[in-house]
Amino acid sequence: MMKFTEPADTIRNRIIASVLLFLVPFSIYISMSSYLGSGDTVASELLAVTLIREGNFDFNEFFAEGEEMPYSFTVSRGRIVNLYSVVAGMVNVPVFFAADIAGIDIEEKLLPLNLVSMSLIAALSTVLMFHILLKKKFSIGLSTLLAIVFASGTLVWSVTARGTWQHGPSILFLSAGMLLFFSENRKAFAWAGFFFALMCVNRPVNGLIVLPFYAYTFHRRRKDILPLLLTSLIPMAFLAWYSLEYWGSLLSLGQGQSGKFTTDPWLGIPGLLLSPARGLLVFTPVFIFSILYMVKDVFKKGGNILYRYLSVGFFLTLIIYTIWERWYAGHCFGYRYLSEYIPIMVLFLAEGWSRYVKPKLWTRILFVFLFGLSVYFNFLGAVIFPSPFNNVPNNIDFNPNRLWIIQDTELLRLNEMFMDRLSNKF
User: Fold this and answer.
1) I need a surface site. Which of 18, 130, 169, 271 has the fewest CB within 10 A?
2) Distance separating alpha carbons of residues 373 and 282, to the nearest angstrom
3) 3-state class (DSSP) for residue 7
4) pLDDT digits (tens, 9 = 90+) for 107-155
5) Residues contacting 243, CB < 8 A, separation 6+
């Protein structure tokens, strides 16, 4: 069980694996999924159009004066702007620009082009994850296997490849930053700061994910901290300009959303990990091995210092989201708020492989079973979602206790819908 001949770690095999890890996931994302954003993503979906046509970040040309707008648009300083960060929309520009050059009506094909762009980002992130694991000296076979876990058994497929959320670009930036951070080349290492900062510009709360890398650098590689910080200033300079120009304040952090905090983290912490409707370990159960490694190995004597910092960041992120007014991230699929941690969870899975998966037959069987569940659950999210779960029998925003009902979950409803489709087809 789980035994195979390890492929030789050659340049040729790395190239072949990289190409396949890009083309196969991308083809699956495009062919099996339809675009599915939300009210949060409407402005980001349209941003590339206005950037290409007018070279600015406002949407005044799309709305008549006094016209009602979707909630992801707002008015600031006399201009209609994205309520949220503009980075997710900016990464669409290459695909939209190519389509425009090819004579495609980019406004008419708005959502299909967004699907192509987000699918490309998810597939590219998969290749980067593969090379991160190789950089950490894991075998080409294990690196390929866990890159497949990344691409098919997580919200990379079911959420980030389906909509212009901030999460997909964040995962791409984190993956690029991690690959550079683990480089032995000091110049390449320095440019990790650019991607880490870009991740924070995209979603400021991501600071809890990337600050551990800076803390580790200051702790263990102090001579490299200045170059890391200098490249970080590039995205921060853009954030400062955009915040002042479109919001009139540096404190806006490039967006106008606001929210409320609660004081009851005791429901949210287990909810983000174990809720049958939102839990990380429910929708990607193979990450049980990642959490096991984090809890049992990272903090023991002689444990990896960087991983300690990353684990602290993970626990702080849990706390922040669990005191947010909607720890479950509203109407969505799975553990959306924790999706940016997927690259780190895969890395921890690789680190724990030799101790918790490989040694015994039953643990290898368990891995295969949990991996299969992870793929199936995210298949449901990518191909079948949405179900009526978030609104029927009542709105979860007003009845969040439904997120704990085991007998009626999002996954159970999606599975029933899938079985109905199969029975109708055959």
Assistant:
1) 18
2) 9
3) coil
4) 999 999 999 999 999 999 999 999 999 999 999 999 999 999 999 999 9
5) 249, 250, 251, 252, 253, 254
Of the candidates 415, 412, 409, which has an alpha carbon nearest to the alpha carbon of residue 277? 409
The token pair at 183 is 């480089």
State the DSSP H helix or E strand holding residue 361, giving kind and residue range, or none if neither.
helix 361-379
Following CA atoms 39, 44, 45, 49 in sequence, which dihedral angle do they give, to the nearest 10 degrees? 140
The confidence score (pLDDT) of residue 265 equals: 62
Average pLDDT for 9-16: 94
Question: Tokens standing for 125?
Answer: 């992130």
Distances from the Cα of 69 to the Cα of 29, 58, 63, 245, 384, angstroms: 30, 13, 8, 22, 29
- Assess contact for 177 and 195: CB atoms under 8 A: yes
CB 337 within 8 A of CB 167: no
Half-sphere exposure at residue 271, Cβ-oriented, CA atoms within 13 angstroms: 23
Q: Which two tokens stand for residue 340?
A: 């940016």
Angle between helices 110-135 and 11-32 (to 10 degrees): 150
User: Which ranges of 70-137 does DSSP label H, i.e. alpha helix?
Assistant: 87-90, 93-101, 110-135
Distance CA 27, CA 331 (A): 27
Distance of CA 46 to the CA centre of its chain: 20
User: CA nearest 54: which of 107, 91, 114?
Assistant: 107
Single-letter residue type at 256? G
The answer to whether the CB of 146 falls within 8 A of the CB of 133 is: yes
| Predicted confidence (pLDDT) per residue in 20-40, tens digit | 999 999 999 999 999 998 999
- Check pLDDT > 90 for residue 174: yes
Q: At 341, list the tokens.
A: 């941690």
pLDDT in tens, 345-388: 999 999 999 999 999 999 999 999 999 999 999 999 999 999 99
Q: In this structure, are residues 398 and 326 in contact, taking their beta carbons and an 8 Å threshold?
A: no
